[in-house]
Specification:
The protein has one domain (9-106): Winged helix-like DNA-binding domain superfamily/Winged helix DNA-binding domain (Arc Repressor Mutant, subunit A), CATH 1.10.10.10. The relative contact order is 0.19. The chain is α+β, with helices and mostly antiparallel strands. The strands form 2 sheets. The protein has a 3-stranded antiparallel sheet. It has helices at 9-12, 19-30, 38-45, 52-59, 98-103, 116-119; strands spanning 36-37, 60-61, 71-72, 80-85, 91-96. It contains 6 helices and 5 strands, in the order ααβααββββαα. The two termini are 20 Å apart.
Length: 128
């Protein structure tokens, strides 16, 4: 289920970001100038690193996708950058840009995540 919320006007100027996109910006903003890998980013915002929600927030949704209405991702909006690291700590990491930091100006606390255990159903081995 896709998370949607009405975000403050300061984010509406960027095309009405989705809540997962705002969570990513907040996590990167709070750790700036540190770079975060996909795994670290997912852990900070409470999503699985292989989550489609995380992928859509970073890359957006293309026109005609079965994932819902099209919208740009944070990379396309240039609110975050993907950086390739080489050497011992190689891989892809992300950092917030000045544009992304500007979009978060004046944005208060974001809604908390649902309790994962309380959200489980019988198919997941949770409550019946």
């Amino acid at each position: 289920m896709k998370e949607l919320t009405k975000l403050p006007d300061s984010l509406s100027q960027w095309g009405g970001l989705q809540l997962p996109q705002a969570r990513i910006l907040r996590a990167l903003e709070e750790r700036h100038p540190r770079l975060l890998s996909r795994d670290e980013l997912a852990k900070q915002i409470g999503y699985s690193p292989i989550s489609g929600t995380l992928t859509r927030a970073l890359n957006g949704v293309r026109q005609g996708s079965s994932s819902g209405p099209a919208y740009p991702g944070l990379l396309e909006l240039r609110m975050i950058e993907k950086v390739r690291q080489y050497g011992r700590a190689r891989g892809v990491v992300y950092r917030i840009t000045e544009r992304g930091r500007g979009a978060m100006n004046g944005v208060g606390p974001l809604p908390s995540l649902r309790d994962q255990e309380a959200s489980k159903n019988w198919r997941d081995g949770g409550r019946a």
